[in-house]
Amino acid sequence: MKSSLIFIISLTLLTGCTLNYEDKIDQLLSVYNNPDLPGAAVMVIKDGKINFQKGYGIANVELGIPIDSFTNFRLASITKQFTAMSILMLIERGEINFNTTLKEIFPDFPEYGSKINIKHLLQHTSGLIDYEDLIHDSVTVQLKDKDVLDLIILTDSTYYEPGSKHQYSNSGYALLALTVEKISGKPFRDFLHNNIFKPLEMETTIAFENNINEVSNRAYGYTITENGIDLTDQSITSAVLGDGGIYSSLNDLFKWDQALYTESLIDEKYLIESWTPGITSNGTEIPYGYGWHVEKRYNSDVVYHTGSTRGFRNINYRIPGKHFTIVILTNRNARPERTTLELAYKIADLYFNDD
């Protein structure tokens, strides 16, 4: 009888703790919790298990389809984790190295490309001109990664001496995707599928290309205005894959998260280096590794990436030393990009407020 009572009390305390997290996370996500508006999918992973997972709002306003753990969102710049992983796989296989230059990969590249190497592209220290600033106002057809290369090739300089400074560059990651294609001889979408998505059984995750493949259980991006809800799913840059073209769900991102604790994709040394702050040529530390922002928080090393594009705001926030991850995917263009990072902080604070 005594042991049964202890079990019941323990179970009650455990259940109360879980419900407490759920109630508090619900409160933090209350702005998304409207069954008639685009919303969010949120997951907390702790010690290899899903501690919290929930969908808020709707994925498709026109059809009234609710968001759940199977809903696939455009990841935007969270894609850079997968682009960097693809490059690291090629490096591990000896097909390129961190010092391989743009000029070596693309012989027609301007001469300054001989000073820009793979590591510069991975860490956003290349100085490449932002391709968004090179798009003419008259362009109406979506750009692809190859179009980014064509635009960059027409430039004759960089913002700064390659390696000397850290400046976020979507251009660099578009060129990394093209590098994967050039070296592997396969379309970027196929390389991702064959080398990452399929081995990890990320069954519905794709690098989306219109008229080539389709996103299942798709969340569409929207903007909430005073007059209603506008479909703002695609922009002129939405078809560029390397910097932001992957769609995925909570279910598949759980598999990605768990794989990063293993060597199932690449050797641990490359993962560690991915999550290590870079160093500029003048010795300045930068808060970015290979496809990941890095910071110190909760007495731990933290790695994360936000993703912001027309109609979507996302984050993948990981504390590997604590075996803890927060994933937030949203399909509304209502708040600044940093909003998801601040929300991740608030959720993490619930678990680590004593740190």
Describe the protein.
There is one protein chain. By secondary structure, the chain is α+β, with helices and mostly antiparallel strands. It has a single domain, classed as DD-peptidase/beta-lactamase superfamily (Beta-lactamase). It is 33% helix and 19% strand. It has 10 helices and 15 strands. It has helices at 2-28, 79-92, 102-105, 118-123, 145-153, 170-184, 188-197, 250-259, 268-274, 338-352; strands spanning 40-46, 49-56, 58-60, 65-66, 73-74, 206-207, 222-225, 228-231, 246-248, 278-279, 285-286, 293-297, 300-309, 312-319, 324-330. The strands form 5 sheets. A 6-stranded antiparallel sheet has the order 2-1-15-14-13-12, with helices on both faces. A hairpin with a 2-residue loop joins β12 (293-297) and β13. The longest helix is centred in the N-terminal third of the chain and has 27 residues, at 2-28. The radius of gyration is 21 Å and the shape is globular. The two termini are 38 Å apart.
In short:
The protein is an alpha+beta fold and 355 residues long.
Tally of structural domains: 1
Strand line-up of the largest beta sheet: 2-1-15-14-13-12
* Coarse morphology: globular
The percent range for strand residues is 15-25%
Give a quick account of the main beta sheet: strands, pairing sense, barrel closure. 6 strands, antiparallel
Q: What's the CATH architecture?
A: 3-Layer(aba) Sandwich
**Mean of pLDDT:** 93
Radius of gyration: 21 Å
CATH superfamily: DD-peptidase/beta-lactamase superfamily
User: Helical proportion?
Assistant: 25-40%
CATH class, named: Alpha Beta
CA(first)-CA(last) distance: 38 Å
Taking pLDDT < 50 over at least 5 consecutive residues as the criterion, the unreliable ranges are: 1-18
Order of helices and strands: HEEEEEHHHHHHEEEEHHEEEEEEH
Number of helices: 10
Backbone structural class? alpha+beta
